[in-house]
Task: structure prediction
Amino acid sequence: MYSQSTHAHKPRKRFGQNFLTDHGVIHAILAAIAPQRGDAVVEIGPGLGALTTPLARLLDHLHVIEIDRDLIAKLSARFPPEQLTIHEGDALAFDFASLGEAENGWRIVGNLPYNISTPLLFHLASFANQVRDMHFMLQREVVLRIVAAPGSRDYGRLSVMLQYRFDCAHLFDVPPEAFSPKPQVDSAIVRLRPRPAQRPEALDPAGETLLASLVSAAFSQRRKMLRNTLRDFLSPEDFASLAIDPQSRAEMLPLSDYIRIVRFLAQRNLR
Result:
């Protein structure tokens, strides 16, 4: 999220910088987050502070992660350390566990650079047990993929893996005109809330690793049938035991079926 005072800082393509200038959108994002004074919040990519400024005013303390040293200097000049902690570096490599435990979980917000949004979402998913919720501005196409239902063209690896860990909601769209410079795509706000760790469908760590491998293989060639993409995992007899059509494609299986396959494979390996 970036402030409207863009004349003093030239947006850098390599950091995926598009500065948010629409006050209505900023207020809508704040309303969606609904920050409370004692919340533990970390913002990814504060930029020039479009969201940082009101968040810092509403919170006891705010953490931000920023890679651009020029922007870090501007933020340091504007906010005292007792109000804002700046973590310099790439969010993709940031160890969110280093923030420590928050009583009610961390709330993560940000305008994620489109060029790294998918790997960053997978990185953040690994810290889901420390998170209360996440609100992100993303390319609208990515948000549609996150919330997609089985059978739709948007449903894929990102849908399955994030829906396994989070309840995902597409909140509202943001047009290119809300930014400077204007991106060539529409944006949207998504909310991700971690699902309970003790839910019935939760897998153990080994199962989660297998799920990731299984889903990656299933969607590696979307046009191919599961009997081909999952041939290293399932035999024709296995498909029959699971009552899954081997001629179906990856996008036809709901998350529950992928979990069933993982449990089936784990049981088979125990025999």
In short: The beta strands are 19-20, 41-44, 62-66, 84-88, 106-111, 131-139, 166-174, 179-180, 187-194.
